[in-house]
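Late entry, evening session. Most of the bench is empty. Finally got around to the prediction I had been postponing all week. Sequence below, unchanged from the version circulated by S.P.
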Amino acid sequence: MLAKPTMVDMETLVSLCKRRGFVFQSSEIYGGINGFWDFGPVGVELKRRVKEAWWKRMVQWREDVVGLDTSIIAHPQTWVSSGHVSAFSDPMVDCKKCKKRFRSDTDVSTGKCPECGGELTEPRQFNLMFQTHVGANQDDASVAYLRPETCQSIFTEFKNVQTVSRLKIPFGIAQIGKAFRNEITPRNFIFRSREFEQMEMEFFCHPTESAKWYEYWVQERLDWFMSVGMKKENLRLRPHATDELAHYASGCTDVEFQMPFGWSELEGIANRGNYDLTQHMKHSGKDLDYYNEETKERFVPAVVETSVGVDRTCLALLINAYHEEEVKGEKRIVLSLHPSIAPYQVAVFPLSGKLREPATRVEKSLRRFFAADYDEAGSIGKRYRRHDEIGTPFCVTYDFQSEIDQTVTVRNRDSMVQDRIAIDQLVNYLNDKIL
């Protein structure tokens, strides 16, 4: 058995994602729509488990972080206060010949159209927010926006959450939700899309302690990526240079992953100071400061933000897990996903259609404890290969010997070793391997 160490190319990965039901082009029957993707039956399970793993680590296992779920459309003044209406834009150019549009800061390096070599227009700023209207009338008074990030509603709800949760500074508010950016040139599959999902946490602390918490969260977030199976050599921390920082930030570090198209940001951890709360206080006239009853001090909390893309994380996990092996002269494609985030943790196969009923009973008994799948399509070998490509860590085969001694064969995805296990011990066996 020989593993192929080279990183998977994007074309191969996109093909696998469609073939195995991870990701489809949105509206494909109509030719698709650029920058929008649909997660299939397998992909939605991967995505859900990624979110569950993040929520457990960020909220469920902690005493100092609570959750929130806010609306996609907020009061339009929210985006005026945050600066998005005036400054959330990218420089855009048009090709005078082929009429295609590009970001002038990243897509154009020669001064000519990267597609046809034609002459480009002068750069102009393009606001990335999707605009819509609320109510029956479509006029300036009804203008609203699909949120370009999930954090601003955390800031506007800070006071409400702090009051009802009774938490004292320092504490965090976490949220998972959709965000929308009208990217000029969506690219690299699900890495840069116009509709995506974010997992964000705003950690509110005393301004004198923000540097300490910033360093803490940088390491904590790096550790999380490794806890879900990402290889250390595929990850790095990249602190932002001074000229990269937003004017209100005193520090920002990206967790980057080695993609086929280069090192790319998965998550940003930023020491934002108290800029956001101060801006919303200024524009709303509402009090968003914090009073420490023990020290009798009143202050506007500083914020350390952690923001990671769900879709980008899924893409990185697939790339990280993909490898090819040569087995008996044939290529074997495997997604070595960590059991905690694998779409299916166990699959059950009947050796023959005659064994469908007892095999189904075994699979149903496992569903209470694990993400399970039942598969009887094709030969056992084809079923193994199918679940290797999906990333299922364990496959259980119910055969004719099972009818005699109530044992089954459990095959390990990574080692391909097969163990004979009593059916009444299956849950314990898999628990030891998966948890």
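Two things to note before I forget:
The two ends are 27 Å apart (CA to CA).
DSSP finds 13 helices and 24 strands in the chain.
Will write this up properly tomorrow.
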